[in-house]
Amino acid sequence: MSTEKITVLETYYKQPGDVQDYDIGFTAWLAALADTADSVTVTASTGITVDSYSLAGSVVKVWLSGGTANQRYVVTAKVQTVGGRAKEGEIAIKVIEV
Q: Which of 21, 55, 70, 79 is the most buried (most CB within 10 A)?
């Protein structure tokens, strides 16, 4: 069993009024295990809205809106596999007002 530390994969910037999509990839992890993603759940820090999300192969697409300027939010996608494994991937969203 792996004791791999969860780290933020990427940091993205958005304005409070933006509605944007972001990808969280699990390709390398799934390929190394010869496993397939089966389902996903997505959660986010309080203050930013997860409008929708979907799983396409090994990539989770998350649509986000809202947030408060000068705040940082973490969005977590947890993938369940056909083989019974689970893996979390996180991105950070920094909201800025330009």
A: 79
Q: What is the pLDDT along the chain (98 residues), one digit of tens a residue?
A: 344 445 677 999 999 999 999 999 999 999 999 999 999 999 999 999 999 999 999 999 999 999 999 999 999 999 999 999 999 999 999 999 98
- Measured distance CA(30)–CA(1) in Å, rounded: 15
Residue 35 CB: number of other CB atoms within 10 A? 18
CA distance 50 to 2: 29
pTM score of the predicted model: 0.89
- Which of 95, 93, 96 lies closest to 9, judged by CA? 93
Output the six-digit token pair for 75.
């969005």
